[in-house]
Write a structure and sequence with these properties.
single chain, 75 residues, mainly alpha, 61% helix, 0% strand
Length: 75
């Protein structure tokens, strides 16, 4: 069931929404955008994970922390 919500956006965002969307579609657009951000689908998550795997700087960070995974843990 839809719930009415009052929000505030920057004027530039509002003008862009008015220009890009047909009348009476701003609420649906905002709802879809927020839903996608809060509940990303599996494909979106998989692509984000693959993109981070390609970032070279992350490899070094993982190696830096690798020793802490088992360090000082009883065997």
């Amino acid at each position: 069931m839809p719930v009415r919500l009052n929000i505030t956006v920057d004027r530039q965002v509002y003008l862009r929404l008015k220009k890009a969307l047909p009348p009476k579609r701003i609420s649906a657009f905002i709802n879809d955008a927020v839903r996608a951000r809060l509940f990303p689908d599996r494909r979106t998550l998989d692509e984000a994970y693959k993109a981070t795997r390609r970032e070279r700087w992350r490899r070094g960070v993982g190696q830096d922390w690798k020793a802490t995974d088992t360090e000082d843990w009883p065997e």
